[in-house]
Amino acid sequence: MDDTDKLIINVLQKGFPICESPYRQVAEQIGITEDQLLSRLQTLLDDGVLSRFGPMYHAEQMGGALTLAALKVPEERFEEVAEIVNGFPEVAHNYARNHTLNMWFVLATERPEQVESAIEQIERQTGLPVYNMPKIREYYVGLQLEV
Amino acid sequence: MQIDAIDRQIIHATQAGLPLVAEPYQAIAEQLGLTAPEVMRRMVNMQESGVIRRIAAVPNHYKIGYCYNGMTVWDVEDEHVHSLGQRVAELPFVSHCYQRPRHLPDWPYNLFAMVHAKTEQDAERQIAVIAELLGDDVRRHAVLYSSKILKKTGLRIAG
Q1: Which residues of B touch A106 (CB under 8 A)?
Q2: Which end of chain B is more exposed for a tag (fewer CB within 10 A), N or C?
Q3: Are the C-beta atoms of residues A105 and A69 closer than 8 Å to each other?
Q4: Cβ-based contacts of A105 with chain B (< 8 Å)
Q5: Domain residue spans in chain B?
Q6: Domain Siroheme decarboxylase AsnC-like ligand binding spans what residues (chain B) (predicted)?
Q7: Cβ atoms A141, B96 nearer than 8 A
Q8: What is the ipTM metric for this complex?
Q9: CATH number for the B62-145 domain, one of 1.10.3120.10, 1.10.10.10, 3.90.190.20, 3.30.70.920?
Q10: Which residues of A touch B24 (CB under 8 A)?
């Protein structure tokens, strides 16, 4: 990853235009060609430096729901349970964390009632109770990490 | 915003990512049998109404050097949690901050703040700043560092 890659990551975390040739517009801003931007972006995605590039959809704003939930997974079952949880399309993110509640995932669904049904299915398939922690209030969401 | 069937098709076509071609909105339009101006107009509407938070790159924290991603959780007085949450959220290094329900007895925490740092020292410095801001209102706290990203796809609607 060189300075141009870092610039691409920093610029593209902030946003991306909706216009006929958006990559050309961003490439000009960065000072590279459109082809260079497209090929570097492809490499950053292939290498996993970027998890994703595109629209970030907000479940609640489209009439759906979001929640944060956690599981206490016995260490010897961790991989098996991760596979079950990750298999749900409703699971948008899942992280291992250093706590007895060691698996934390975000459920994002198109319709509100799908959250409850996903939780029930995860409990049934894993045999573990899900600690559901839907937000009561949101104070700030604005993650942008400078490279 | 009430999304309609065509918005939904656009969401489905782009939720995994925007096409990496010179005219991505044209490519989406062709795939869905729409025109590029129609796709762009609808995406602008969705962005303005918040259905699209933004169109952006999502980095893997670890791969760009942020190895200390801590979910800091705090057990604070319910009467003060709202004002404290607002103040914690103003700290420049806090990316997300939420009030969430406790699960007593094993989960007493009601205020969550995410921090991201390149070194453990930086992370601990950030956590110390939050602790100082919360002061005597904190009964106890914990920091849950992520040890592995198990999945990171974002919202997926069914086809």
Answers
A1: none
A2: C
A3: yes
A4: 150-151
A5: 5-49, 62-145
A6: 63-151
A7: yes
A8: 0.91
A9: 3.30.70.920
A10: 22-23
> CA of B3: which chain A residue's CA is closest?
A62
* pLDDT of A141: 62
In CATH, what class is A60-132? alpha beta
Query: B90: how many CB neighbours lie within 10 A of its CB?
Result: 12
Contact A95 B15 (CB under 8 A): no
CB A85 within 8 A of CB A94: yes
Average pLDDT rounded to a whole number, residues B18-40: 98
Q: Using alpha carbons, select from B127, B132, B121 the residue that is nearest to residue B142.
A: B127
Q: Please give the Cα distance from B68 to B127 (Å, whole number).
A: 12
Nearest to A101 among B16, B107, B156 (CB): B107
Residues B98 and A137: their CA atoms lie apart, in Å, by 6
**How far apart (Å, rounded) are the C-alpha atoms in residues A22 and A16?**
7
Query: What is the C-alpha separation between A64 and B102, in angstroms, rounded?
Result: 23
B11 touches chain A (CB under 8 A): yes
d(CA A32, CA A36): 6
Q: Cβ of A51 under 8 Å from any chain B Cβ?
A: yes
Name the B residues in 112-131 with CB < 8 Å from any A CB.
112, 114, 116
Pair of tokens at residue B101:
């329900």
Instruction: Locate the domains of chain A by residue range.
Output: 3-46, 60-132
Global confidence as pTM: 0.90
